[in-house]
Amino acid sequence: xxxxxxxxxxxxxxxxxxxxxxxxxxxxxxxxxxxxxxxxxxxxxxxxxxxxxxxxxxxxxxxxxxxxxxxxxxxxxxxxxxxxxxxxxxxxxxxxxxxxxxxxxxxxxxxxxxxxxxxxxxxxxxxxxxxxxxxxxxxxxxxxxxxxxxxxxxxxxxxxxxxxxxxxxxxxxxxxxxxxxxxxxxxxxxxxxxxxxxxxxxxxxxxxxxxxxxxxxxxxxxxxxxxxxxxxxxxxxxxxxxxxxxxxxxxxxxxxxxxxxxxxxxxxxxxxxxxxxxxxxxxxxxxxxxxxxxxxxxxxxxxxxxxxxxxxxxxxxxxxxxxxxxxxxxxxxxxxxxxxxxxxxxxxxxxxxxxxxxxxxxxxxxxxxxxxxxxxxxxxxxxxxxxxxxxxxxxxxxxxxxxxxxxxxxxxxxxxxx
Length: 418
Hints:
Elements (H helix, E strand, L loop, with lengths): L2 H11 L14 E5 L2 E4 L4 E4 L2 H4 L8 H4 L3 H5 L11 H13 L6 E5 L2 H18 L7 E5 L8 H5 L19 E3 L9 H13 L5 E6 L3 E2 L5 E2 L2 H14 L2 E5 L13 H4 L6 E4 L11 E5 L1 H6 L15 H16 L1 H17 L8 E7 L2 E6 L5 H10 L2 E2 L6 E4 L7 H17 L1
Parallel strand pairs: 3-15, 5-6, 5-7, 7-10, 10-11
Antiparallel strand pairs: 1-2, 2-3, 4-12, 8-9, 11-12, 13-14, 14-16
Helix pairs in contact: 5-12, 8-9, 13-15, 14-15
């Protein structure tokens, strides 16, 4: 197709996330390493890791080699059948999570993995004799996906799903956690309020540990994760950790819960699990949850569950994580993001600048003009996708020093231009 044909079809017939039909788009012709090549030949650094998934960059040779799986089998149903790629991926996940979990369920996407986690928690509460526990407790400023149960635990007012109020299941919301560096008293007061939200109906507490993602890109202290675990233990409720964004090294630690010294009852993983090659996610459960569920069979079954090709790619991506090269990469990125973004702290219109691991966030005092901010970043050779008041970057781990410096220039340009 010509670029004109692509643009015309896109403008007239294709929806993009959270955008009206016909919203501005750019045509990507190819992607390799940290670069996107547009149809006009422009090269842009993918400073978003294509929504945090392409942690090892695009078209990584070790991951593209997984295409040989297609020659053996691209897909078989997982009902009553299994295969080597699923077993290999599972072995890697068990090792990465220190064998804290006993069972894994493979889902189509991060949102579906959250749906599955909620089902697990409800079946567990039924199994231990508490069918009255049917609600999820979570804290505000959270985001867990776009399917209906996942939407019900996203921030109901400040999030992206407020239009569905009254349609979604009614969950219980605690205030947003205090931001990283809050005083001991503030944290103690917050934890008391969080525990006070637990009623006889609560089945599980759902959190994004340490970093809240698309709900506001907010960071909080590891202590809150540890105390969330203690609160759940005191009340016999399930702790669900949504590590879809934070897992596999993004925060500078393998998993945010591990860094906090916590084992959640259920953990959701996705995004970087496939290295950004395709959609797939996983929900892991401890032996206590798996054995306590009633029925023991998890009542969920996606058509493409544990797709062999996705499992093969994920097995290699998780093998790369096991090798540990990412640790030095993320540490270096964190240092450079601090250096490159800190000068924005005193700029008019900037409310906050924060960095953790390979995550850099500039929060503005007002909503960003997405089109203008994006155009300004593109002028610097950088692809960013701001939302709300946030201009942020989550670059691939393989990014070089010069490329991080260029990303910082792009963020600064977006802040000035948006």
